[in-house]
Each structure stands twice: as structure tokens, then as C-alpha cells.
Task: structure prediction
Amino acid sequence: MRITFFDPADIYTAMATGTLDGTEYGSIVAMTSIGLEEVGHYLMQPDYQIFWCGCYCISDNTYNTMPADLRAILMQGIKAHTLDMRTTYMDMTGEALQKFFAAGGQLVVLPNEDIELLSKKGLEKMQEMKETDDYCRRAVQIIEESLVKLGRG
Result:
């Protein structure tokens, strides 16, 4: 087995032709949005994505030269969008799961020992990433704090 990156537009065809045995393409919402329930009938649980969050990118130069009032507006807009998407995404997840099951999909639940091993290895890798730079150190800190809040740390 090997990991290969595919353009999202090619995933469906690759799965349909057997070029690709399986995929990780975000959430069940993302997967059913491109019809993967038609060519992939197994969904691994538990979800590694505990909840949806957006990814917002802006260059350092742009952000650092924005007036403070525009930065505040940007941050409030991102927070509002994230809250709206979180509630919307829950409904979308339910609809996507119904679509998946209607196409004959089945859930495959990983055994606890596999989940524990994957979690352990992921946490070890995060500790390595902490040493990369201040940005990674802060990102790992945020993840660790979130894991504690979710009862997983």
C-alpha cells in the first residue's frame, strides 16, 4: 500500500476504475458532494474530524498592514462564518450519511487498540512538530488544549 495524492476531480474515476482502493477526502459531506458513495461503500469510524472548522489564509504582509479596525472586522467575520458553518454542517452531515446509506454504504468501526495506536503515534508526531518553529509550537499547543477540553488529553 502507498499513499498517492489525487486531484479531487480525479478521485471518483480512480476509485471507479480500481486505480484507487480508498480515499480520505475530508468529511462525508465532501465525499458525497463528488459522488464517492457510488464507488466507495465503506466509511471508517470514528471520524478523525471532530468538528468542522474553516481554513482562512491571508499573507503576513496583507494582515500586518491592515488597519486594526479592518483586522477586527475580519476576525469577527471569520468567527460568525465558523459558527454558521458549524450548525449548517451538522445538517449537511446528516443528509450526506443518509445518501451514503441509501447507496449501500456501511460503517466500519476501528477496534479500540487501533484507535489508541493511531492516537499515540499522532501525539508523538505533534511533539516532533513542536520543535519546528514558533508557529508549529503554537498550533500544537492549540490542539493539545482542545484535546483537554474534549476529554482526550
Remarks:
- The longest helix spans residues 68-102.
